[in-house]
Design brief:
Layout lengths: L1 H9 L4 H7 L1 H10 L12 E7 L6 E7 L1 E3 L2 E6 L9 H8 L2 E6 L2 E9 L2 H14 L2 H8 L6 E7 L1
């Protein structure tokens, strides 16, 4: 029931500003629960740790994901913002990353998707979280990047 309400709320115009403010709480929650609770437990989520392309330091971000077979799929929506999120630039610079999911730390390698595969994954993502359609409308000047995370 909560997930249905959360999905419906995600399509409301005022959702994004509120949700953006919760990212630090979400990041903390993911860290203290060992990745067992992310996105306040309302959507399938993981904690992605990339290497900062400028700093070289680990950078962790809570993200929703969908499964595609054994792979984890994440989208660089940045809430429909002007620019791609920093984590996506980090993955492009160094595709080796770590995912914390259900209390497990998993080494992954990222690949940006394209073409028919990207189109198919977009449908999977939007089926799970319809709010991504709003993010796409807010960012018409850029294509929201979709990454496939494969276990290393």
């Amino acid at each position: 029931m909560w997930q249905k309400m959360w999905r419906a709320a995600g399509a409301l115009p005022g959702f994004t500003p509120v949700a953006r403010r919760l990212v630090n709480v979400d990041r903390w929650l993911g860290r203290v629960t060992g990745g067992r609770v992310v996105a306040l437990g309302m959507a399938p989520s993981l904690l992605l740790t990339t290497t900062g392309r400028r700093s070289g330091l680990p950078r962790s971000n809570p993200l929703q994901f969908v499964r595609d077979g054994d792979d984890l799929i994440v989208i660089a929506s940045n809430w429909g913002g002007e620019k791609d999120p920093a984590w996506s630039w980090n993955l492009r610079a160094d595709p080796a990353a770590r995912v914390t999911l259900d209390g497990r730390d998993i080494a992954v390698t990222a690949a940006e998707t394209e073409g028919a595969d990207r189109d198919r994954l977009w449908k999977l993502i939007v089926d799970q979280w319809p709010g991504y359609e709003n993010y796409k409308l807010r960012a018409p000047h850029r294509q929201l990047r979709i990454f496939r995370l494969k276990r290393s």
